Fold this protein.
Amino acid sequence: MEPFTFTPLLANAFKFAMEKATVEGKITIGMLVVVSLFSWTVIINKALQLYKASKMSKKFYGAYRSTRDPMDLFNKNQEFPGSPAYEIYFTGAEEVAYHLKNNPVEIRQTAPLPSSNNKVPGAETDMLARTTKIKISNASFESVKVALERSVSAQAISLEKGMIVLTTAVAGGPFIGLLGTVWGVMETFSGIAIKQAASLAAMAPGVAGALIATVVGLFVAIPAMFAYNYMVTMIRNITQELDNFVTEFATAVEHTYVDNRPVSEEIADALKKMREEQQADPLIARG
């Protein structure tokens, strides 16, 4: 009994075609191999990036939504490397912290605080907003929203980086292979015409060597097409989650840290503060 030998699929045909391929065909195949290397590099790196982004973002969302204070994770210096949502959160929280430090609005409590025994849903959030004495103005909040929008755009660009290589492989791979095939067939028929020997034995090697370029082009394009479609869907989902999170975070910051008092109350508070300063400083009072 003869021992079983395993022969890879299309191994004999591929070997024969490569041996009979023209110089032009081999150059075309070399170009396709280079495109394939770039394509698979992007596929592997992008797959790892999206996997890490999805995994760390889930952890971040869980940690962020477990607290009522939108600045809690920032104040505790918690980090979630690889999460686009965390990068956006850090940018926004850093901007809020800057304005709380450099452009603060001091709020004086005039109304009694709600009882801690209040079990109405959302009472904890309302308590936090009422007990926050240092807030930011609406003008400062606008700069926070601008920073958030800028960070979302940066993260979207980062997620989409390199995808142009896959689209090039999908669109260009088959055409490069077709170019090699047409070129090889043209060379084959030209040689047959010169030798005046139009037979199947004379045509088959040249045609086989030409067709291998199209096969390689399809091997380059097909994996890139499936990877591109899958990754574009993942990127679209992550980007949508980022847009939703920006709205959620901005709303939480506005409710907790933005001075939304009526204008009349702000003017009354400013006048009261001015009178207190005049009473404290006799020179101001005399002036």
